[in-house]
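User: Teach me something about this protein's shape.
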Amino acid sequence: MHTDTCDVLVIGAGGAGLRAGLAAIEAAPDIHVALVTKGSLGQSGVTATACSDRMAFHATLKHTKPGGPDNWRYHAEDIYRIGGCVSDGDLAAILARGAQAAFDYLDALGVPFVKRDGLADQFVTDGSKYARACYTGPHTANHIEQALVRRIRQTSIELVEDAMLVDLLLTSDGAQVAGAVILASNEIKAIRAKAIVLATGGVGEAFEVNVYPPGMTGDGYAGALRAGAELINMEFIQIGLSSVKTKLACSGSMMRAIPRVINDQDEEFLARYFPVGTPPGQVYSVLFAKGASWPVSLEEKSHIMDIAVFREMVAGRKVYLDYSRNPHGFDPSALDGKATRWFKEAKGVDLTHVLNAPTPLARLKAINPQSVAWLQARGIDMDAGDKVEIAPAIQHFQGGVKIRTEGNTNLKGLYAAGEVAGGQHGANRPGGNALLDTQVFGKVAGSSAASFAAATALPPTDVARLAAVQTKISGMQTARGLGAGAARKQL
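Assistant: First, the predicted structure itself:
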């Protein structure tokens, strides 16, 4: 087996992995950092491909309300509260306190955040008391990925593309990582390292309906668990209503436009899942609220909509959002105060009149024309009357490899950041915190790994474990059985 060496090995090149690699090389310019990416740099993984109607980067900034030197504490409290008090409070504080620096770094790299009077425009997302969500539009994550990739290419970081983690290597006592075995361009090879940062993302591919790109197979979770790393909060998985065709998260303006929610029999079925006699105004107020409480959460009344969609699908009926005409009985004056207040204030101009638009499509174009254009470019032409088929989709794994305050794990030399890491989120999280997480803990893990590597000799590899990995790989290459897709369907 071919073997390479490096000081810091970063596995994964989404937002967290890119930030970790940069933090490592910026903290210790003379060390050898290698970055492994499962596909092509900047084109694979969640950060490079994720999209929603207005993607949020959740950050407490100097001008964020309510203001004051301890402004970050409100953010940390929101993280802990919406997480059901099962996140690590210290990690929540690090995430909140690191938001300004994370934003400034990306801003300096040229991420085109929308600004008003020179300051980042911010809006309220689910789970947040104050407006903290920064954005560039539907492509916030993609813009962040592109900026980080540009910076990566200016450094001495070694790129290992089209490669995936097979297993982690350990010292003979099992207490320290010593490297990793990877599959690179169909060749098995080992990379010995002083420190490893796992940034492999979640495991959306375990579920048939998900918003993940191909390749998100939980390699980091599995490799870390086999190596003896602790995992935490793995039972908490976020699910949200998404476009079946495009995987667009149908949050925010997609719901605030108040479309018809119909099944394949053209029945507006939502009212059937509310108590008998519920006025249409209350039903459509809940539909509007789904825009700000997108992942299903029992604490939010809008969970009725998720359940309704799911039950329709169980009954064998497909579900669509129809923007061609207003829902039956729709009366803007019957909506609750939250809806009317949002249309009056959220965009910085009074758009109350938009509520009286003749169609939901007209409302959507007024509040977020980018979503309409994005869908049209992907084969859903709402101007021509196309409907958006939706389904509950796996969206984010809250738990992962348990990290401490330096991004470190219980295994010496192993660090983790991003969705593969666990503890910074609880059962739920404020919308946009996942993208922030990639930058804050990517930096923490990368700089910590660099410091560790600079003060550590290259550890010896457990030869027996390496031999066992080789044997396992050989068996897998000759084994016959169900393909991955068929196995997933059975699961």
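Now, about its shape. The first helix runs from residue 15 to 27. The mean pLDDT is 95. If you'd like, I can walk through any region in more detail.
User: That's plenty for now, thanks!
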